[in-house]
Amino acid sequence: MDRVGVIYPYAWPLPNLVDVGALLRDRGYVVDLLAAREAVGSSSEWSGQLSCDLVGHPGVMTGRFVHAPGWMRGRAQRPYRRAAFLVGRASLVHRMRHRHESDRYVALVGCDAEGVLEAARLAKTLPVPYLYWSLEIATFHADMTPAERALKDLETVVSRNAAAVIVQDQWRARLLATENGLEGVRTVYLPNSRRQVTRLPRETSTLRARLGIPQDVHLVIYTGFLADWAECRGIAQSAAHWPNGTALLLNSRAAADRSLADTFRSLAPPGRVYVNLDPVPDSEYGALLRCASAGVALYSPKESPAGFRENLEVVGFSSGKIAAYLQFGLPVIVGMNTGPRELVEEFDCGVCVEDPHGIGAALRRILADRPAFSERARTCFAQRLALEPGVSALADCLDSLRDQRC
Questions:
Q1: Percent of the chain scored above 90 by pLDDT?
Q2: DSSP state, 195?
Q3: For the chain, what percent of residues have pLDDT higher than 70?
Q4: Is residue 350 classed exposed, middle or buried when 0-12, 13-18 and 19+ CB atoms within 10 A define those classes?
Q5: CB 226 within 8 A of CB 250
Q6: Helices 370-380 + 320-327 axis angle, to 10
Q7: Spatial separation of the C-alpha atoms in residues 181 and 356, rounded to whole Å
Q8: Cα(180)–Cα(376) distance, rounded to whole angstroms?
Q9: Can you list the pairs that 85-94 forms with residues at least 24 positions away whose Cβ atoms lie under 8 Å?
C-alpha cells in the first residue's frame, strides 16, 4: 500500500486524524502519524487506524522539548539536547527511507507552520511532494517577536511550494491565501469533524452521576480548552440567569489545574455549573454529548493573541466542538463569528448570541422546540460538516500525485 506521512507538532490529540486515517485506508493508503506521544495518549483507536511513528522525547521534529527530562533542562544542557535532537532526527529519517523503499510515500502532510516546515525538510530527503494542512491560521501583526516573524516568513514560503493546501472551508481558504499568497495552489476542503455514525449512542455516560448532576436537569455542555478566548468565564457567569432546571457542564479537553473547578463553580449559584477537568475518553465522548440538551461554543477574538484574532473571527468549519454537537443532534448556541453564524442561520439548528448574556434567552427558545432543533442539527452536519466528502477529495489529490510519480 502507498503511504502518507502526517507530521503533527502538537501535544494534544486531534480526534479527526483517526477518522481521516481510516477513510484514507479505505482508499488504499497507510497513514503514518509522526507525533509526540502526548498527541496520541492512551487511545487504542490511534494504533488501530494509524501507523504511529511516535517521536517521544525529545521532539525530533521541531527541536523543542514538550516535557524534557529534568536532567536535560537548563542552559548548561543545551549540548545534550542538541545531540539528542540530531540522533532522533537521523533515526526518524532512516526509518522513513527504509519504508519508502518498499511501501512508497506518495506525499507528506505537515500540520500548521512547524509541521509543514518539517514536512518540507523530510520531503527533500525522500524525495516526495508535501501538503500543508492548516488547522490554525496565524497572521502577520505589528507586535510580532523576531522568532514569530521568522516562523511566519518560513511558513509563507514553504506553503507556496506545497502540492496542495488542506483547509476547512472557503472562508478560511480565502484568509490563508491572502495571508500567505497562495494564489494558484490547489485547495482541498476538509472540515474538522468525525466520520458519520450509523447509530447514535444511548445516554449512558457515567459523568452525570460522578459529578452529581440530577438526571432531570437540562444540561448545556461546553467542551474544549477552559480559556478566556472561549468565553468560559462569561458562559459560567451567565448560568446564574438561565431558566430553572438547566445547568452548565464545562468539560475540559486537557487535564487542567484543580483550582479551576472551584473558580468556575463560584461564578454562579450552587448546582448551576459543573466542571470536569479529566478529559473524557474518545470512546465515551458521543455518549456524553447525548446526555446534554444543547452545546455552547463562543469564540472571542479580542481575548486571543494578536496573531490569532482573525483565526477566531473566521472560525468557519474549524470548530471541532460545534461539529460534534451537531453530529449528535445538539442544538448549538454560537457567537457571531463567520462560519458558525452562517450554519445556524441557514439551518436554524441553534441560536446566535452577541455575548454570553444572551445564552439564557437562547436556551428558552431551544427548549421550547428541542426535537425540531435537534433534527435540523443532524441535517446541518450531514450537509455541511460530514468528513467523508473532504477525505474523498484529499484521496483524489493524493491519487493525482501518485499518478504523476508513476
A1: 60
A2: P
A3: 88
A4: buried
A5: yes
A6: 120
A7: 36
A8: 36
A9: 85/58, 85/59, 85/60, 88/55, 88/58, 88/59, 88/60, 89/60, 91/60, 92/34, 92/53, 92/55, 92/60, 92/122, 93/122, 93/125
**pTM reported for the whole predicted model:** 0.90
Q: Are 211 and 280 in contact (CB under 8 A)?
A: no
Give yes or no for residue 88 having a pLDDT over 60: yes
pLDDT, tens only, 157-215 = 999 999 999 999 999 999 999 999 998 899 999 999 999 876 766 666 688 888 899 98
Cα distances from 105 to residues 101, 209, 315, in angstroms, run 9, 48, 32
Contact of 91 with 112, CB cutoff 8 Å: no
In angstroms, the CA 176 to CA 59 distance is 27
1 vs 25: CA distance, rounded Å: 9
Per the listing, cell 473571527 goes with 313
Distances (CA, A) of 121 to 124, 129, 225, 259: 5, 11, 32, 42
Q: How far is CA 88 from CA 55, 115, 316, in A?
A: 8, 16, 37
- pLDDT at residue 227 above 70? yes
pLDDT tens column, 21-46: 889 989 999 888 887 666 665 455 55
How far apart are the C-alpha atoms of 293 and 272, rounded to whole Å? 15
The pLDDT value recorded for residue 237 is 97
Three cell numbers at 72? 536535560
Q: What share of the chain is helix, strand, coil (3-state, %, to 5)?
A: 50, 15, 35
Distance between CA 72 and CA 164 in Å, rounded?
38
Single out the residue of 347, 340, 194, 211 nearest to residue 271, CA to CA.
211
Q: In this structure, are residues 275 and 252 in contact, taking their beta carbons and an 8 Å threshold? A: yes
Residues 6 or more apart in contact with residue 319 via CB below 8 angstroms: 192, 297, 299, 339, 340
> What mean pLDDT is predicted for residues 234-254?
94
Instruction: Look at residues 68, 8, 15 and name the one whose alpha carbon lies nearest to residue 253.
Output: 15
Name the DSSP letter for residue 111.
E
Q: Residue 170 in 3-state DSSP?
A: helix
pLDDT value of position 210: 87
